Amino acid sequence: MKAPIHINVSFAFLAFTLFSIVVSGANAADARNTYAFHNQRTPGSVDQVAVLLEVGGETAFLQKGKPQRENLGIVCNLEYLEKTLSDADDASGKLRGIRKYQKAAAAVKVGDERFEPSLQPRHSLVVVEANEQEALLYSPSGSLSREELDAIDVHFNTLLLDRLLPAGPVVVGQSWPPEKKLLALLLGLDEVAESTVEAKLTEVTKIVARFELNGRVEGKVHGAATDIDLKGRYRFDLRTKRIDWVGMLIKENRKTSEIADGLEVVSRLQITIKPAEEMNELTDAAVAKLDLTPSDAMLLSYTSPGGDFRCRYDRRWFVDNASGVLRLMDAGILVGQCNPAVLPKCEPDRLVSLEDFQEDVRKALGDNFGEFVAARQSVNAGGLRVLRVVAEGAVPSGTDKVDIRWIYYHLAHRDGRQAALTFTIEQEHLDRFADADATIVASLEFVE
Hints:
- The chain is mainly beta.
- It has 2 domains: about 280 residues, Lipovitellin-phosvitin complex, beta-sheet shell regions; about 150 residues, Protein Transport Mog1p, Chain A, CATH 3.40.1000.
- The chain contains 6 helices and 27 strands.
- Strands 4, 5, 6, 7, 8, 9, 11, 12, 13, 14, 15, 16 and 17 form a 13-stranded antiparallel sheet that branches. Strands 20-21-22-26-25-24-23 form a 7-stranded antiparallel sheet.
- β5 and β6 form a beta hairpin.
- The longest helix has 12 residues.
């Protein structure tokens, strides 16, 4: 709800001549002049960034099998310092930065409901990492929630903007197509199938070069088809040799997916960027003390609807906020589902045994039950007793049946608090699912 080519405006060379022409004045827009743009983003540089995103339109969904629509409005304000840590020319091939968010809040209205997702102060430091395939945001201070991530992961990631510059010399009025992979990263898409988007150099003055970005993108996000029309501009400062402003009008028509409602919206995005002084939390010494490895920090945090327990999960899981159900998407395919439940507290000496839990599973599955695959008892990282029962069977689907694997968990605190998790996976997706349940169960803890 993303590795850049680093580019510095150099002298423009007039084709087929033996002398160079310095970019200058109104006459610089003469089409006979060619211009090469190379930005001066280097490790250690710090930018002050302000982002304003306004979204208006409708969300589409099914209710009792009937299509429904509700008005949708979003206003998101972000302000942050972004320090470049490495560029794509280093050994890793990744572009990496770290941000200090000074403001990160959104106001969302869907129908009559309102909510305001924001970034917790303890997560104000966020690492941004990008390569050719993906752009990731995570906090070295702990796992973000899905709501926090959605609040800061907006279109046109500032770490990637330099890649909108032309790869070689161009003349005023010349256009070129941005790579599909770049468009997917900038727009938060899983893939771009078709694109008519072109960037164009429209003007060069003594202090800035101006560009346009227009066209249509057809792609997918979380398995849903989406069409996006782009109409925007961006500006390159010839003094700082950096893109310093972006303004985009983004019209999107997204189909409903297995995990999200459809959208028919228009977004207005404005980004301003200017050089900034380094603050204490972003000095080399301060950054060196942080663990910037993405492993555990890439996990997201989940709290049950009633606030009774929390856990962490990998980013392929998406939460239905209304029901608390988690659904696992992998490469646009719905792989599995997790139904969490809080159970009534009981006396510790009356907790269900593994054998009785197995029998409960058999009864719950009824005619769908086929056989038990595994059953065991263990203790998770937080000291909770864990019962795990794996069963296989089949459920009716039209005139046929679908083979299913169920993984049932019962987790209990020593004081008698209990929770249950039921994972449902179509057997054809078992390889994709792998051990996607393991992190959730290992990290689950009751909230004191």
